[in-house]
Amino acid sequence: MAFTFFAIYGAQAQGFGIGIGAGYLSEIEGFGGSADLIYEFDEHWGVSSTFTYSVADKEGVRAKWTIVDINARYKVIDELYLLAGGEYLSVDLKLLGLGGGNPIGAEQSFSTSDYGINAGTGYTYNLVDNVNVFAEVKYVFLDQGYVHGKLGLRFNF
Predict the structure, then answer these.
(1) What percent of the chain lies above the pLDDT cut of 90?
(2) Number of domains in the chain
(3) Residue 27: which of 132, 139, 153 has the closest Cα?
């Protein structure tokens, strides 16, 4: 992501943006924070890369999700866009033991990762010159798919 950032920024691209946001992930029933890099090729087409991190505790189990996705974006009307792409998901689960409310007893950890496909939509609303508010919702197709909705700020350069 850093290489992409410097390559695009070095080209003085007018369609470059950075976003920060917070969202809800339905599968773990928890909230997470995200950082976005967005590049718009022209009035309709663009590409985005998003890093999301989420932690949720439920019934003695702590789930940590690390998500990286790359999406193609197409503006349909004004600032309403459709997105589609791929996702890498890394999940770390920790059974918290007796102190964390788990009746099994001992603390245990598990890790797994998976690849999925994203499909969704979003809308960007311009507040001032280069500051925008955006809302985005997507469905991620995995073994157990989930909905990821987020709200955030985008800064254009």
Answers:
(1) 67
(2) 1
(3) 139
